[in-house]
Sequence to fold (205 residues):
Amino acid sequence: MNNNKPHSTPQEAATLLYVFNSVYPISAAAQTFIIENTYPMTVRKGKKLHRSGEICDMIYFVNKGAIRGCVQEDKKDITTWITVENELVASIHSFILQIPSIENMEAIEDSELLGMKHIDMHRLYAQELETNILARRIYEKYYADAEIRALTARLSNAELKYEYFLKTYQHLSNRIPLKYIASFLGMNLETLSRVRGKIRGNTEK
Fold:
């Protein structure tokens, strides 16, 4: 990771502020706080943004690139989630409770991020009360997304799993390496390739 500047510029934070205001309007004071308390950084493809066993003390906004959550089990690499531009990302259980995380966070692509520290986020909540409504709406969305991921993971039918993936993550289907999609869906690469071929064949008929 590379953090060259003391905090974001208005230009670097522009997309983040646009996304926040589209969820719930926030004051000029809140926007200034966010600019002054977020930090630009880059993470190269294949590098860890966060490591398991450490406390996740920052939440990140993805300006560019793709990040995945992953865990290691018996030398097996398991993808738990995938996030791309215009989304927030953290090892959320660790970030909220400030306890060591189970998962790693790794860049799938060269990525440009804005990070905010846990303590600064809570200062923002205390100083600019409307940001609590913003946070609630964002957490609601991410909780709903997590439920879909959990339900998809429990399905036994590989085709149904991939169809759910296409409905929810269509924008990732031709962007993210298939090995990560297969791992995310809990199937091997050969099964995913077979399912993709079958679905493509059906759509071409």
Q: What stands out?
A: The longest strand covers residues 76-84. The beta strands are 39-43, 48-50, 58-64, 66-73, 76-84, 88-89, 104-107, 111-117. The CA atoms of residues 47 and 191 lie 28 Å apart.
